[in-house]
Amino acid sequence: MNKKQLEYLKNLEHQRLIEYINNRSVEELLEIKRNIKDYVIVENEISKDDRDEFYTILSYVDTKISGLKQTNAENILQEEIEEMINTSQFKPLKSLELIEILGLTIKKDNENKLITFLCMLSAYTQDSQFNISFNAPSSSGKSYIPIEIANLFPKENVLILGSASPTSFYHEQGINDKEKNTITVDLSGKIIIFLDQPNPMLLSRLRAMLSHDEKEIMAKITDKNQGGGNRTKTVIIRGFPYVIFCTAGLSIDEQESTRFILLSPEINQEKIREAIRERIKRSADSDLYRYSLETHPKRIQLKNRIKAIRQEKIPEIIIKDEKKIEQMFFERVKIFKPRHQRDIGRVISLIKVFALLNLWFREREGSSVIVSEDDINEGFKLYDGISESQEMNLPPYVYDLYKRVILPAYQDNNPDGIDIGTRGVTRQELLKKHYEVFGRYIPLWQLRQEIIPMLETAGLIIQEPDKNNKRAYLIYPTAQLTISKDKQYSEVDGGVI
Asked: Which of 62, 196, 355, 438 is nearest to 70 (CA)?
């Protein structure tokens, strides 16, 4: 590759550059890498901006080389031989100890960090993956939990994306076959974290995989060819990845909500205080903090445990005692609704991943792992903590707001009970109450456009025009509350009469 060709490469648009790199073999990429390095060293008059451009190209080339090398069976086998983990170091791991280890970097948020970890671990199952959507207001730390936990997993399994169009996603993550005119994107065993709601077109193409309808799906994209014309390519998307969304938008499309467990980071004074302490410790001496973290025996062992689980390549996790699951689920559900078909699937996934976490201490049937009674109990215990909001199709933050803001505000307006006459709650009163409870304001538009409609859809509130101000609306809980001064009979405190 001569100087003119290198300059051409440097001036390519980002998308064309990615396409060009994806169409090269390992040998060709290595040659490009050598030529760029030689050129940058020899050309003394090259500008800093041009030098930076070439270094950016080098990073793309290195990433692609690594990806292509990983597809080589001999290299993969060699890596596995070199990295085989001694499993005798492990012991049975229960949720409380796992929470303790995760708590080295994530304070409080016990249910959230445990579920997020298990979700990521589910990427190493054949078909028990489940997905998460973190929905919470801005600056509430919704991306912190998944990113911190992802640091425990092998880097080659983790994709952290800001935003991506379908075309850029396929080119960057796929392998291009010029002869067959296809791009193959293998997402098996992948953990994909979207730091914001993904591109709608990309999301629509991934839905079949998120719901486990099809393990291999095909799509068509149109690329520019070297002559400037359009060329249609076939994209093959393979595997069931684990996917997580982190979004400041509280509302989520119904098509997505059925495919995700909805979570929200805790927002309380104790959690914020602990997070501040951790931030101070991390910033005071970052090198020492990082060293103490990476040398922590339990954290090292957990990272080794994850690698060992991946190496096992468990084909299936089997439940023998299905009657126990049926009994425990039916005890919790009094009136069956269509959504319970979705909910039981999530409970089963949690149970299976608990078994995967402790696979060396479980019965085996060939290469498959048998779920134990402990796994069933752990799965139900964890799901019980989030089931209320999930059944309502609400992020926990929104459901918590209903219980801690709307109901108490309604009680404040009706201290003598509804028999005396009820007064609804204005939006301004809710904003004031929210600040009292959470120590932060929420925008009026978010209350009006997202929170109130979600609670209406869930059947928890209604809005009625204010008789004294036709331009205003009052909010009422739909439950027939008897607000009593005796707390045991207040719905806010658990008692309803």
From this structure: 62
